[in-house]
Amino acid sequence: RALAKGAPAAAYYIHGAETILKDEAVATLIDAILDPGLRDFNLDLLSAQTLDPEQLVAVCSSLPMMADRRVVVVRDVEAWKRKSKAKLAAAQALTELGDTTVAILVQGNDDAPDGELAKPCTMVDCAAPTGEALDAWLDDRLADSGVVLEPEAREHLLRATAGDLGLLAAECAKLAGLGGSKALDRDTVGALVGIRFGETADDWRDAVLRDDLATSARILPRLLEQSGTSGVRLVMLLGSSLLALQWGRATAEARRIKGAPLASAVKTLCFESRPMVGSYDPFARLVGEVVGRWSLPRIDQAVRATLAADVALKSTTVSGEAAILTDLTLNLAVSRSRKAA
């Protein structure tokens, strides 16, 4: 958006946890600055791991060929933290860039940005998107892939991938391979992703919070068979959800709200604190639905039981995970007080 309003900055510093977003940011900048026909003459792709300080100064000093600007992309700039001479030269070069060169520094890890290198740069934060930002990213990726999903299918895709951009990108590519213009339903998406509708980690958590023992017991064995799913991950999801539910219950009592107003407050909390609870909008609606079942003492007891299960899971074999999680869900269900509401 900033590029559409005027000339690009002299230097950009791209950082954050999401590699896909970093690559997209680099591609967006290059596309906006360079003419495709002259890109090969005016684009340098370098790595700080092998870049000499003198080389960077020389590259940034080169003039563009038949264009107004050239672009220098330097990846892995965190390597310069271990090379003080290289970092000093790079920082100096960034302050001396003319109007004909745009430098793009890309930090490979998700550590805090380097203050000296970042100071003369426009910052681009590529943190993992959540909530509406994740929804917007997925909608853009689906549109680019020519894929249309029914609402339930779209939500299932988010739940099945836990909002992981790498997995979402891969699944969008697979869905695009199906072709056709008809909106895909939840069963089609589930079959392609390999996780049936209603059998994601979020669905298990939802069943637990709804005191739906039959559903949580049915889902659990299939969940633990899924690649990337473990008992520890499930209790982390449940624990984070219980803490958010605790806030929701306290807020409901203090402000005397429930239903949609409470769900809106929980959604705002999620955007501010970024808990690991899955997609924020459906989770906020879930809290508004079940908060009457969960008194504050019951939630406190559930948090303690979940912590104990986490400790047990970290000291057991994979074969014991199902038993520990089943005991946990049974304990949470029987803890329900008829006076919770």
Describe it.
It contains 16 helices and five strands. It has helices at 2-5, 19-33, 53-61, 84-95, 115-118, 131-145, 151-161, 165-176, 186-193, 201-209, 213-225, 231-255, 259-273, 280-290, 296-313, 321-334; strands at residues 11-15, 43-47, 70-75, 101-106, 122-125. The protein has a five-stranded parallel beta sheet, sandwiched between helices. Strand 2 (43-47), helix 3 and strand 3 form a beta-alpha-beta unit. The radius of gyration is 25 Å and the shape is elongated. The chain starts with a helix and ends in a 7-residue tail after the last helix.
What attributes characterize this protein structure?
single chain; 341 residues; alpha/beta; Rossmann fold; Zinc Finger, Delta Prime, domain 3; 3 domains; 5-stranded parallel β-sheet; 5 strands; elongated
Quick summary:
With 341 residues, the chain is α/β, with parallel strands linked by helices. It has 16 helices and five strands. The protein has three domains: 124 residues, P-loop containing nucleotide triphosphate hydrolases (Rossmann fold, 3-Layer(aba) Sandwich), CATH 3.40.50.300; 63 residues; 134 residues, Zinc Finger, Delta Prime, domain 3 (Up-down Bundle).
Widest sheet: strand order? 2-3-4-1-5
The Cα radius of gyration reads 25 Å
Mean model confidence by pLDDT: 89
Query: The CATH topology of the largest domain is what?
Result: Zinc Finger, Delta Prime, domain 3
Give the SSE order as H and E letters. HEHEHEHEHEHHHHHHHHHHH
Second CATH tier, the architecture of the largest domain: Up-down Bundle
Q: Which structural class should the secondary elements be placed in?
A: alpha/beta
Strand share of the residues?
Answer: 5-15%
Calculate the terminal CA-CA distance, rounded to whole Å: 48 Å
- Let me know the largest β-sheet: 5 strands, parallel
Shape: elongated
Summed up, the helix count is 16
Query: Helix content range of the residues, please?
Result: 55-70%
Give the oligomer, counting copies of the same chain as homo and different chains as hetero: single chain
What's the total count of β strands?
5
* Low-confidence residue ranges: none
Overall CATH class of the largest domain: Mainly Alpha
Query: How many structural domains in the coordinates?
Result: 3
